[in-house]
Write a structure and sequence with these properties.
6 strands, binds zinc ion, binds manganese (II) ion, 3-stranded mixed beta sheet, homodimer, 2 domains, DNA-binding, 22% strand
DNA sequence: AATTATTTGAGACTCATTCACAATAAGGGC
DNA sequence: GCCCTTATTGTGAATGAGTCTCAAATAATT
């Protein structure tokens, strides 16, 4: 069994949820693509590949995946949220072009550390964060 | 004429928009309150004070204010966006309790600088940013 | 196989926000 | 101030992402 399938089984078990074809299909579609896509993108791709899963099930499954750190939810400020899997990739944040919508990823460990310090200072138990830079990308300038 | 009224007049003029009672009332309601409120909070407060401005106008006015750096839009992850004026206060970001919804502000110049460096590195023209920490606040732990 | 509990799909629903359009009000010149 | 042009407003309808309901399907348990 593939590593990713294992992972899904584990998480579903931990959550007391059943392993179903639909959940596997959704996870598989997400984990085998490295783009930032919205629910409809994912739903339509599944459908195009002849895999019939309802939109509601895509939403429901993604909720579970996000809750369990397998998928990152990305609010790009306009339109529906986007999603990307978190397998085999270090944590990163995003720069979003307000002109063309391009999403670029960035990593900055110093910022991450400072962020932890801030949380500690306020005795705030940090669960997740959003750090997004909005502006004009190189190509759009 | 008050400083804030001046400011509004300037911005509206710059945008080629007219100075109206409604726009003044909305700006006045926002600038004289230091909380993080959603459109409906603001709308209802105006209404409670006998100032009849339609919801659509509140939305429209806030758009202008946000676009012109007089108001910050705050997406708290659940429910409607919140807003706060940006007068007489240094830039800050937010920590949001996912339990009770409390919003705490924080300032970190080092993070701001690193952020600028990242943008420069990618030749990305930074216009605005969101940096929000989600977690459990001191009181909710 | 029968029983019980969960999941699914379909579509209705919610709720924040936007839109269309007729009525109203600003601003600039006279 | 008055007229004219154009922007703004209020109303309520429309939109659209996301959630919910519930009956049918599927899975687990006996
Ligand atoms: Mn990414
Ligand atoms: Mn604030
Ligand atoms: Zn761009
Ligand atoms: Zn709290």
């Amino acid at each position: 069994m593939s590593k990713n399938k294992e992972k899904l089984k584990m998480v579903l078990h931990k959550e007391g949820l059943r392993f179903t074809n639909q959940r596997e299909a959704v996870w598989n579609e997400i984990v085998t693509c490295d783009e930032h896509r919205n629910v409809d993108d994912i739903y339509m791709t599944l459908r195009k590949n002849g895999i019939l899963v309802s939109r509601a099930t895509v939403y429901r499954t993604i909720d579970v995946l996000v809750k369990n750190n397998m998928v990152r939810k990305l609010d790009v400020g306009v339109g529906p949220s986007k999603f990307e899997h978190k397998m085999n990739a270090p944590h990163h944040d995003h720069m979003i072009c307000i002109q063309c919508g391009r999403i670029e990823e960035f990593v900055d460990d110093q910022i991450e550390n400072l962020q932890d310090s801030v949380a500690k200072e306020y005795e705030f138990k940090l669960v997740r964060h959003i750090h997004q830079l909005f502006g004009i990308c190189k190509d759009c300038q």
